[in-house]
TrEMBL record:
EC numbers on record: 2.3.1.257
GO MF terms, alphabetically ordered: histone H2A acetyltransferase activity; histone H4 acetyltransferase activity; protein N-terminal-serine acetyltransferase activity
Key words, A-Z: Acyltransferase, Cytoplasm, Lipoprotein, Myristate, Nucleus, Transferase
Compartments it resides in: Cytoplasm; Nucleus
Family classification: Belongs to the acetyltransferase family. NAA40 subfamily.
PANTHER family with a match to the protein in the record: N-ALPHA-ACETYLTRANSFERASE 40
Transmembrane segments: none
Organism for this UniProt entry: Ladona fulva
Descriptive protein name: N-alpha-acetyltransferase 40
N-acetyltransferase domain segment(s): 68-218
CDD domains according to UniProt: NAT_SF
């Protein structure tokens, strides 16, 4: 065998660095996923009392939720999103959506009123996204009567707190372009178009969504 050239050594060193970085990022995600209830470290954020609302927040893995709660969450998702899905190429499919919402990695941040009724939820996961350790917010859904009272903003702040104290790099989410209220809501919270968003793709005309994110300022100092 011949001797390694400086160029081949440089490539090898780069691969080693990439492998080490991936292992580091995977460890962060695994540590976040090892938490049974990431909200338990922040008791001050388990209550929201403002603008006539008095709700309690809880956070659970989908595996720890009973069937009636899962169906309450699914029904709220369908009530809010079915028409929007049907307006794009995705279409609404009960079976596929339920499968997505009950995958093993799914976690839920839930808000219940004084009667114990579900009024809002977020489906989120700890994951690697293009190699970055992230909290991916799949859904944030509120009942009509609790909107515009600060609860949605509060729940996103809770997700950010959970993500950033776990040293994850960002909170990331997908929003439908033809849901302007949601786009406006997230951008008001300083979410920006993520570098992975397909908006600049040649297939832009076929893409009904964009990917938004907020960076962990402790890691990415401006």
């Amino acid at each position: 065998m011949g001797r390694k050239t400086p160029k081949s050594k440089e490539k090898l060193d780069k691969r080693k660095e990439e492998k080490a970085l991936l292992a580091e990022h995977t460890a962060l995600v695994n540590k976040a996923n090892s938490q049974t209830n990431p909200l338990s470290s922040f008791p001050a954020f388990t209550k929201f009392s403002k603008n006539g609302l008095d709700v309690t927040l809880d956070c659970k893995r989908v595996a720890d939720m009973d069937e009636s709660l899962i169906h309450s969450i699914f029904n709220l998702e369908k009530e809010n999103m079915k028409n929007l899905y049907d307006e794009c190429s995705w279409g609404w499919n009960d079976k596929k959506k339920m499968e997505e919402m009950t995958e093993e990695a799914a976690r839920y941040l839930m808000a219940k009123n004084e009667a114990g009724e579900l009024v809002a939820f977020s489906h989120f996961r700890f994951d690697l996204d293009y190699g970055d350790p992230v909290l991916y917010c799949y859904e944030l859904q509120l009942k009509q009567e609790v909107r515009r009272k600060g609860l949605g903003k509060f729940m996103m702040q809770v997700l950010e707190l959970i993500a950033f104290t776990s040293n994850l790099h960002k909170v990331i989410l997908t929003v439908l372009k033809h849901n302007p209220a949601a786009v406006e809501f997230y951008k008001a919270l300083k979410y920006e178009v993520d570098e992975t968003s397909p908006q600049n793709s040649v297939f832009e005309e076929e893409c009904h969504y964009e990917i938004l994110s907020k960076l962990n300022k402790k890691i990415f100092k401006t």
